[in-house]
Amino acid sequence: MVRSRGRSGARSAGRAGGVSGDGLSPAAERGRHRGWFSAVRSTVGGRSLAGQVFVLQVVIVLLLVVAAVVALVLQVRYDSTQEARNRSVAVAEAFANAPGTREALDDPDPTEVLQPRAEAARRATGVDFIVVMNTDGLRYTHPKPDRIGKMFVGTLGPAQAGGVVVEQITGTIGPLVQAVVPVEDPDGEVVGLVSAGITTDTVGGTADRQLPLVLSAAAVALALSTAGTALVSRRLLRQTHGLGPDEMTRMYEHHDAVLHAVREGVVIVGDEGRLLLANDEAHRLLDLPDGAEGRRVLDLGLAPETAELLHSGRMATDEVHLVKDRLLAVNQRPTHLRGRPSGSVATVRDSTELRALSGRAEEARERLDMLYDAGVGIGTSLDVTRTAEELAELAVPRFADYATVDLFDAVLDGGQPEPATLVRRCALSGIREDAPLYPVGREIRFVDSSPQARALKGAQAVVEPRLDEAPGWRAQDLERSVQVTEFGIHSLIAVPLRAGSLVLGVVSFWRSRKGRPFDSEELALAEELVARAAVSIDNARRYTREHGMAVTLQRSLLPRRLPEQNALDVAYRYLPAQAGVGGDWFDVLPLSGARVALVVGDVVGHGLHAAATMGQLRTAVHNFSALDLPPDELLGLLDELVARIDQDEGQDADTAPVTGATCLYAVYDPVSQRCTIARAGHPPPAVVRPDGTVEFPDVPTGPPLGLGGLPFEAAELDLAPGSRLVLYTDGLVEDREHDIDEGLELLREALAGAGRTPDETCRAVLEARLPDRQNDDVALIVARTRALGADLVAEWDVPSDPAAVARVRAAVTRTLEEWGLGELTFATELILSELVTNAIRYGGEPIRVRMLRDRSLICEVFDSSSTSPHLRYAAMTDEGGRGLFLVAQLAERWGTRYLPAGKVIWAAQPLP
């Protein structure tokens, strides 16, 4: 066309006369310039067709520019608001689901944990605020600290029900767009709310900043469009004059050459579904027959879907069609030419190679996603078997059709793996459940030629691309290998589970659905996947070992059987935590005078240190109880012991202090039917009366052991026979879902509906209160009281007169005859004679003698003196000092018990 215009211009100039330096005369040159200006004036004035087109185009361009500016401004404002809504929702959900957010809500001071995180997230994401609140809308965080602790402004109902709220309101920092999302626990219960938002100033600022640029661009576009329209009109004015048939023919030839030279098929179809035009590339891609133009596209032998698309004339954008071995992307637009039949124009592009590259990129992305999911989803628990199951479940069906995990037995128990031993199948996952692979729990000994044995021995992954051609694998189990190949499994990768230098087992990946075998890239992916899982399995193995050691130590330190006594019927339960061994403990200690001590304690923390500390405290309570101290004094001594232990261990950076231990000590006397209780930071006891009523007596609580500085107080309870005293640790009444007040109320309900025996009570309480997987140890003791009848107790007041000793002996003799214990008369008279004589000589009034018939015969002498006699060996020339020696020889046990108003010297003899 340029050449055509050049020749036409030359002919016009030749007709005008003389010639200038470029072929035109000066007059012709001036005439050409005058003609150009005249053309412009004509164009602008609209007197010609080109001028009318120019005016119309300018008006259309102006309207389009104005409409575009208005639409763009509105769109920018809408997009800014929408972006604010989307960003506030995204930031709120990300912070609500962030690790640690839900746990922080259970913290005693959520603001201390969440405020710095919220501010850091706010600054990083560009929002104006991130507010964390409880389910009632009470703020824990806010950019303005003075707003913390106040109620949130906005709609919370849908978020409290588990939904998402997005709204535009006027809040404490002005008009804003905010979103409120819930924070849910693993059971789906809403435990908190998170709100994020952006103020209207921030949203509007984005649009205002973009408005000058938009207006400038519109002005430039209008100027350029006007200039372009003027240029097009001028050229149209010039080009339409003098254009002959040769030039039109040449234009068609150029158009035809370009049409058939492009690398994209062009197809024009008429309104009756007839093919009007197809260039060479369309013939090649669609495999059109010769003479296709003019025929109906449905009769050209095309694929049904492709023929239907071309015949319908509907709009299509990058619609992919399979034509033989090619993937063709088809774009089609209908044409509606005024005054002419309608039809459609379609372009066809070969996207086979592009699709192949895209497929490989998608496959690589999926592999990266799987490795990321492996890092997040494998090792969620410290259980070896569960971790192996997570690995198998992740690999199927994303990487393999079946996955098996085989571990050495020692690994399952937390020990060191022994390569020469059998392996056990711990996990099996597959797309079908009827695969003929070894089942879970099966012990397997791999033959040396099998891929799994080679992987274990060489600590390197082994791939078997075709199992039907692998004699080493078939040698493992000839019958089963035939079943496996007939089932359709045809390829295998065996990867050893290595943790450092240890080989824990082997993971096998099996393929059945895909026809191609595993390749080298998939082998590398399998190694990376198993390497990540091996770390988690080894961590679970180490934890299993340490947990087993701690459980063994803990159980060895707890009482193996309850001592024999008649004051209480006792039943107990001890359940260690699933996630780690704690320091809960209990004991039942017979005391003098047929009394029994019950003790329960808790060392804060888990692991070996907590279990070992529990053993120290239990031993100390055993020793202190031998002194027959009151409960409050015993806790005072235990508090001093814990403080000394803390001082000694505080010098060792690797040893945690004991501070945080709690204890409850109770002494029950079956004669007086009274129980004396003191506690150090421990939950209160529960008492179930014989009529079934449940109460939590008001026992003064002291600080936990080891803090020091405050004395302990004791409380006395009168317990009728048949009452049940319930002692427990905090793991029974406290957890993440319930505080201690709610836990005590639930315990009250469980005790009210329990049976009357201690064992039935223990069973009912644990069934009602114990969660499926407790996070803390639980120690529970239920003791039903008995009374020592008046017919088994004899008591006399003794005056401070040596002659009264004879009367005491006579009364003792009568009582023993009534009890049928006449054969103990001599020893009992001698013991009481010595004890009463010492009380008269060295003690103070009043003096009382009491004799109890329990599991042994107990003789007690009380006087008001606090001076205790001491056992010694008298010399041959000594006149005294042999009394207590005789008592110690005749009695099974003897000792001294101090009371607020004196002391009791007691001696116990075994019954015949």
Question: What descriptors fit this protein?
Answer:
single chain, 912 residues, 6-stranded antiparallel β-sheet, 6-stranded mixed β-sheet, 31 strands, elongated, SpoIIE family protein phosphatase
The whole-number mean of residue pLDDT values reads 81
Helix-strand category: alpha+beta
Taking the alpha carbons of the first and last residues, their distance comes to 136 Å
Helical segment count: 24
Largest sheet: 6 strands, antiparallel
Placed side by side, the strands forming the largest sheet appear as: 12-11-10-15-14-13
Question: What are the low-pLDDT stretches, counting only 5+ consecutive residues below 50?
Answer: 1-29, 31-47, 240-244, 874-880
What value does the Rg take, in angstroms?
48 Å
How many beta-strand segments?
Answer: 31
Fraction of helical residues: 40-55%
Tell me, what's the shape? elongated
- Estimated share of beta-strand residues: 15-25%
